[in-house]
Amino acid sequence: MKKLRKMCSILIMLSMVMTMFTACGKPTKRTSGTDAPTDNSSAGTKVTGEADEAPYEIVMPFVTVGTTPADLGKVEAAISEYTMQEINCTVKFKPVSITELTTQYNLWTSSGEKVDLLFLFFSDLGSYVNEGKIVKLAELMQYAPTISKESEESPFLSGGYYNNELYAIPVINPAQGEGKAMYARTDLLEEAGYEKKDLYTYEDLDTIFAKIHAAHPDMTVMARAGAITTTYASGFINYDNLGNGSAAAGVLMNVGSDNTKVVNLYETDEYKELLQWQRKWYQAGYISKDAPTTSDNAGDWVKAGRCAGFSIGDDTIGNQANIEASSGYDITQLNIKSTYVTTNTYNQLRWCITTMSERPDKAMQFLDLLYNGEYLVNLIQNGIEGTHWVKTDDAKIIDFPEGINGVNTPFSNPLGIYGDKRNMSMFVPNTPDFYPISEQYTADALTKQSAALGYAFVSDDYTTELAAISSVLSQYLTTLEYGTVDIDSTLPEFISALKNAGIDDVIAANQKQLDEWLAANK
Fold first, then answer.
1. How many helices and strands (H and E) does the chain possess?
2. Tens of pLDDT along 286-307?
3. In sequence order, what are the residues at sequence separation of 6 or more whose Cβ sits closer than 8 angstroms to the Cβ of residue 345?
4. Of 302, 358, 366, 502, which has the most beta carbons under 10 Å away?
5. Confidence (pLDDT) at 191
């Protein structure tokens, strides 16, 4: 069961980075489908005197979803041709499934096997620091002029710090923010006579749920299934989790807009209100009675016509189309939480330089190239022009060559985990308005930055307490957040168990660190 829960968590996180339609590249100033750019667009990363040095080989993981592309070697060769020209190095990929990252990294580091870069996927940066696997990056930033310049315009590097030291370079997503939405079948919403709004409240959703349930009593309204180990609250409540996804170390409510007091999320009025609505919806039959214990994927319920939807996801452009493609139904997006920016916005997809790297300067130069223009980031993302993709009449929109499709393509890289993703082109049927819409979304989110943007709780001294808190969360969250138990009796019991596990001590330590961080970053 634990393995199943872990796999479900990985699949949920994968859905956030799977590019599906958004994944190819359009290189600049190319004379053929295989020639690298000759405009020296990334000359700023070159180091004086390196032409006299022997080429260095950068070894890095090529992260897959289980299958290594047949043409990975061809793409690797094309990348090396380009990087030799730009930074006098070649690139060697070590294919690894995203579900095996941690295991494989441990094998590499324990054996001393050469690897220059590591990709962290929703991983704890502190554990890699404390185990001596990655290096500090501040002194290496001189080899990353593009990243340095971009950091002056965007706070993306805020997700790369641990204990006030820069250890990772986060990936830049086109749309940056933490707004949330529910996604439901359009036909059922229209049948229920739903009203289009910018933001939907609990009351709005309750009205819609009731109408759909009355018309289709045998259909599950909400697509929710499986045990809950990380709170569902982030879908509805505005808070900064201060680097802890389960809110086990306290949160800043309203992302610190009115104060910087770290509180226990589970003791707040907002959390109790959420539970009360879940309880009402469970008792009304909108949530499946089997949801807490089933191993089913709730998305399959929608696909099979057994469920209306109302799954929660990010409210960024593209999600609606992805859900439509996977479900086979027209889907409508109902925004339920306005967007904002916290450290968590930038700390989920990160690249680090290992302590095993013989030339960390070269590794940093390579990372910088992934943020400099369109060529390299698109080559590593979706392969070679003319072989794996072709241009269309629309800027940044590409298609497969004749005879090639998403099933038989010899190079597929569905994970968007490289560099500045704003420089990536997209497969049809996406349209060119994706990027301006994403740019506006990011601009809106940046007007509501957390007071603690760049801060993350250093929990090294509280591993025992956090383990105990995690155990309590695993015990109570599923029943409370599905609404299967009485709130008035179970919530106080839950809070008492958290206190016995040491949550108040952890929150006090978090508050102390945050106060010190705020004082140092005025």
1. 16, 16
2. 999 999 999 888 889 999 999 9
3. 159, 176, 177, 178, 445
4. 366
5. 98
State residue 32's pLDDT score.
Answer: 32
Confidence (pLDDT) at 40: 41
How confident is the model at residue 429, as a pLDDT? 84
Rounded average pLDDT over 175-182:
97
Give the tokens for residue 70: 């047949």
| Confidence check: pLDDT of 11 > 60 | no
Q: Determine the Cα–Cα distance for residues 235 and 78; give it in Å rounded to an integer.
A: 42
d(CA 493, CA 282): 20
Residue 246: pLDDT band by 50, 70, 90 thresholds?
Answer: confident
- Which residues is 93 bridged to in the sheet? 60
Task: Spell out the domains of the chain, with CATH numbers in brackets.
Answer: 2-171+346-446 (3.40.190.10), 179-225+294-338 (3.40.190.10), 228-287+460-522 (no CATH)
At 14, list the tokens: 């994968």
Q: Name residue 460's amino acid.
A: D
Query: pLDDT for 339-352, tens place per residue?
Result: 999 999 999 999 99
Beta pairing partners, 119: 351
Distance separating alpha carbons of residues 82 and 73, to the nearest angstrom: 14
Compute the distance between CA of residue 254 and CA of residue 95 in angstroms, rounded to an integer: 41
Give me the residue label for tokens 């295989």: 34
How far apart are alpha carbons 251 and 264 in whole angstroms?
6
Is 0.85 topped by the overall pTM?
Answer: yes
Tokens of 338: 């306005």
Q: Which two tokens stand for residue 13?
A: 């996180």
Per-residue model confidence (pLDDT) at position 310: 92
Q: Are 165 and 426 in contact (CB under 8 A)?
A: no
For the purposes of burial, counting CB atoms within 10 Å of the CB of 486, is it exposed (0-12), middle (13-18) or buried (19 or more)?
Answer: exposed
